[in-house]
Design a protein that fits this description.
The chain is mainly alpha-helical. 52% of the residues lie in helices and 11% in strands. Helix 1 runs antiparallel to helix 2.
Length: 116
């Protein structure tokens, strides 16, 4: 994940007018590469990314637990389908991350894709 976030920037006489990547509020920045309006927004954004990783790991553990609880006889197809579902989810998440990196040059969390 790179630190180059795609945000709106407008040149001012003594700096830049930037839209915060996290809260989407406009703020005046001295530097061109400013992305967040405050350390609070920067911290919240990075915590959100970590929480997304934890949620994905929890999903993996839940599917693994369900597979382990499937009886060995007669339920092989259910375990197979759960495994396939986990693999498909991983594939789609990796494609989403690749798309975001290719298109925007950075990782975009799923909430950025939600319609307003």
């Amino acid at each position: 994940m790179s630190g180059n976030y795609e945000v709106e920037r407008e040149r001012l006489a003594d700096g830049w007018n930037v839209t915060c990547y996290h809260c989407e509020e406009e703020f005046e920045a001295k530097r061109f590469d400013a992305t967040f309006c405050s350390s609070r927004c920067r911290t919240a954004h990075h915590r959100k990314l970590k929480q997304l990783d934890k949620d994905i790991e929890t999903m993996h553990q839940t599917i693994d637990m369900l597979i382990d609880r499937c009886p060995r006889r007669g339920y092989g197809k259910i375990a197979e389908n759960l495994n396939l579902a986990r693999n498909r989810i991983d594939y789609l998440l990796s494609r989403l991350e690749d798309y975001a990196e290719d298109t925007y040059g950075n990782f975009i969390t799923p909430d950025k894709f939600q319609a307003d």
